Amino acid sequence: MYQSVPTRFQSRYLPAERVTLPRVFWGLILHIPLGLLLTRYAFLATLHAYFIVALGIWFIIRDRTPLRLIYVCGYIAGAELLWRMARADVFWEFGKISIAFLLMLAVVKWQFRVKLWPIFYALLFLPSVIITLNTFSLNQARQQISFNLGGHFLIALGMLVFSQVILTRTQLRDLMLIIVMPVMGVATNTLFSTISQEVIFTGVSNFTTSGGFGPNQVSAILGLGALFSWLWVIAGVNNPTMRWLLLAISLWMIVQATLTFSRGGVFNFIVAASIGSLLLIGGQRGQARNLVLIFFAFVTVVYILMPRLEIFTGGLLSIRYTDLNPTGRVRIMLSDLQIWQENIWLGVGAGGAVAERIESWGRVVIAHTEYTRLLAEHGLLGLVALVWIFLITWRGYRQAPGWAKGVMLALSLWSLAEMTHAAMRISAVSYLLTIPLAHLTDEE
Fold first, then answer.
1. Helix (H, G, I), strand (E, B), or coil: what is residue 327?
2. Residue 261 backbone class (left: φ over 0; alpha: ψ -120 to 50; beta: rest)
3. By the 8 A CB rule, do 35 and 186 touch?
4. Which residues pair with 13 in a beta bridge?
5. At what angle do helices 427-434 and 67-85 cross, to 10 degrees?
6. How far apart, in whole angstroms, are the C-alpha atoms of residue 362 and residue 373?
7. pLDDT tens for residues 238-290?
8. Which letter does DSSP use for residue 8 in this model?
9. If DSSP codes are grouped into helix, strand and coil, which group holds residue 351?
10. Distance between CA atoms of 159 and 164, rounded to whole angstroms?
């Protein structure tokens, strides 16, 4: 049933304009050659990155609502890894900073009401910024603050913006597919690298099957693309062509993520997709059709894809994914907790835990788990920030209507799972955490 728009949201209501399915189809397909093109010509990747940001600014200037800007920010979250793979001439945190910049402009343009709870969240990190400025040189402090706090600044802005907009069912589906588009380019590059080079599998992450870039981040973004494609299949419109296409894309991306031998992206997908699917099946019509799709996907993965991947990897696939060794992350987590115990109130400042490990371990070791990093570098205020993150996750789930609870919880769970093993390396973690705060409505 159609829900009326509350008066307080009228100025930020997003009208039911949408990206048509033919445009989405061609957008997905065209990112296959685009991914190959950008990785071969770095200057084109640079132009692409700045063009997308300029497009967001144009939408802010011209549009009456922030709908297309939200789409652009989602695209940036999906394209960030593609730009890094292509060696685009942009700074490392370009994705987080550009999304935050666009959201700040949106707050000004559409006069979003300033709320205390996003401001409170941002202020939690102010003491650590002061400690960092007193610990490092100005240039080093800038790098540490940008690397460690950029994601949290984006969370604060996302809370401010998404808590004051309404998204329709169709717009939410479109946003998911827009994020998948640039991930198609990442998947294409990993596939091309895998089939065009000799691949030697060992018991660790594989750079060849990751397109020559960091397997951890590649696995994560491929898992995200697989998740959104899968959720669209379960919660999408009754369009058989798009459903089967996206099911194929989801299987393709999860296969590519698996072949990176970086287990994080697959772990994220399993956690978010399984729980999200259970809620979607229970809250949607057409459960029988979805059960058939799930059964088909299960049989395809277990009885067709996995045996062939096991042969392709020389039997190392099962060994890798049944190995529970966290590859040094537990030691880093214990180090973070020890640092927190010694600096329990305010921590050692953003990046301070890395400096501590340089002194004690003699090498640079960056935290992989955001939960313990927050405690070590921000003390009790970091603990409050963690509680805040879980509270907004719970709020997003509680306020979502029945048809959207599965999707909203899947978005949050993907981000929370990614933070356990890869901190907040990519902007998608922060952006997806705040999307569930949007007020969702069905359409006539």
1. coil
2. left
3. yes
4. 166
5. 160
6. 19
7. 778 888 899 999 999 999 999 999 999 999 999 999 999 988 886 555 566 77
8. G
9. coil
10. 9
Write the DSSP string, 219-278. Answer: HHHHHHHHHHHHHHHHHS-S-HHHHHHHHHHHHHHHHHHHHTT-HHHHHHHHHHHHHHHH
Token readout for 393 is: 């996750």
What are the tokens at 285?
């019509």
Helix (H, G, I), strand (E, B) or coil at 147: helix
What is the spatial distance between Cα 65 and Cα 62, in angstroms, rounded to a whole number?
9
Instruction: Count CB atoms within 10 A of the CB of residue 286.
Output: 12
Amino acid at 102: L
Q: What is the pLDDT of residues 64-93, one digit of tens each?
A: 999 999 999 999 999 999 999 999 999 999
**Residue in the block written with tokens 């993520």:** 257
Confidence at residue 7, expressed as pLDDT on a 0 to 100 scale: 46
Contact predicate 258/306, CB 8 Å: no
Instruction: Count Cβ atoms below 10 Å from residue 441 Cβ, excluding itself.
Output: 23
Question: Hey, which bits of 244-365 come out as E strands?
Answer: none
Q: Which residues pair with 439 in a beta bridge?
A: 166
Separation of alpha carbons 428 and 227, rounded Å: 13
Nearest CA to 258 among 318, 214, 198? 318
